[in-house]
């Protein structure tokens, strides 16, 4: 968690969080006003900060990947495409638990450039194809399952549907899409996803969603939501199939 401590404790992040009230008041991200561009565009121009962010996502992922893999049977899918999978920690955990499956790790070139070392360390590099690109342009084809972990929550509805439609364009008639997300429950009690909801709004102008909201997004993209699988962590697996 060293990278996460450095990232969330950085002056840049502290500056954003001091403006949380403004974000709550307007319902928008504070980053364009601070930096003149969106958060991801800002990272694209700050490679050291972007790499620290990617390291942070990898270290945070390690806290939940085991519970996600334990809570869902990924072994049912011969080829699993991890869309926006970063350095590949979730895909590595999935393939370790599903020895008969193979994987495709898909993300921006700068992001996946550091994936091979992690995949080798986990002993699954020979079962993974690394593909470079943006999920706003296209998604690799021939997957039996497409996994998107904490991807859709990064985007407002129109962008989220665009990503899902690109997945649908690559998907076959029996393909499954699996969204690993904080699904907001229908109660007013404490839930970690509600804090993450604030973070998404502050940094990205995006949000967490309820199961009904995920069903609607998926339907707009040509998928039929089949179930929501709660894991031992705050994350759930939202399962849907090509309609």
List the helices and strands and how they pair.
Layout: H1 2-8, H2 11-17, H3 20-26, H4 31-35, H5 39-44, H6 47-61, H7 65-71, E1 79-83, H8 89-97, E2 102-107, H9 109-112, H10 115-121, E3 128-132, E4 145-149, H11 157-170, E5 176-181, H12 192-204, H13 211-220, E6 223-230, E7 236-242
Helix pairs in contact: 1-6, 7-8
Report on the structure:
This protein is α/β, with parallel strands linked by helices. The chain is built from 13 helices and seven strands. A seven-stranded mixed beta sheet has the order 3-2-1-4-5-7-6, with helices on both faces. Helix 1 (2-8) packs across helix 6 (47-61) and helix 7 (65-71) packs parallel to helix 8 (89-97). The longest helix has 15 residues, at 47-61.
Q: Give the radius of gyration.
A: 17 Å
Topology as H/E string? HHHHHHHEHEHHEEHEHHEE
Tally of DSSP helical segments:
13
Strand order of the largest sheet: 3-2-1-4-5-7-6
Structural class: alpha/beta
Q: For the report, how would you describe the main beta sheet? A: 7 strands, mixed
Describe the structure concisely for a colleague.
The protein has 243 residues and is of the alpha/beta class. It has 13 helices and seven strands. Strands 3-2-1-4-5-7-6 form a seven-stranded mixed beta sheet, sandwiched between helices.
């Amino acid at each position: 968690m060293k990278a996460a401590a450095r990232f969330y404790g950085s002056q840049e992040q502290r500056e954003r969080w001091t403006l949380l009230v403004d974000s709550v008041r307007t319902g928008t991200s504070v980053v364009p006003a601070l930096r003149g561009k969106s958060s991801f565009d800002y990272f694209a121009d700050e490679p050291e900060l972007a790499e620290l962010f990617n390291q942070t996502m990898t270290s945070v992922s390690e806290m939940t990947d085991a519970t996600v893999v334990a809570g869902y049977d990924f072994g049912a899918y011969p080829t699993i495409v991890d869309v926006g999978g970063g350095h590949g920690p979730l895909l590595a955990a999935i393939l370790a638990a599903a020895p008969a499956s193979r994987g495709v790790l898909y993300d921006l070139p700068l992001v996946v450039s550091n994936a091979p070392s992690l995949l080798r360390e986990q002993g699954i590099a020979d079962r993974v194809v690394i593909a470079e690109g943006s999920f706003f342009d296209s998604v690799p084809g021939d997957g039996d399952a497409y996994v998107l972990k904490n991807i859709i929550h990064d985007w407002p509805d129109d962008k989220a549907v665009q990503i899902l439609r690109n997945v649908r364009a690559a998907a076959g008639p029996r393909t499954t899409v699996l969204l690993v997300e904080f699904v907001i429950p229908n109660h007013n009690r404490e839930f970690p996803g509600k804090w993450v909801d604030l973070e998404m709004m502050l940094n990205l102008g995006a949000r967490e969603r309820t199961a009904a909201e995920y069903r609607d997004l998926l339907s707009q993209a040509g998928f039929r939501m089949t179930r929501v699988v709660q894991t031992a962590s705050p994350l759930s697996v939202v399962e849907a199939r090509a309609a």
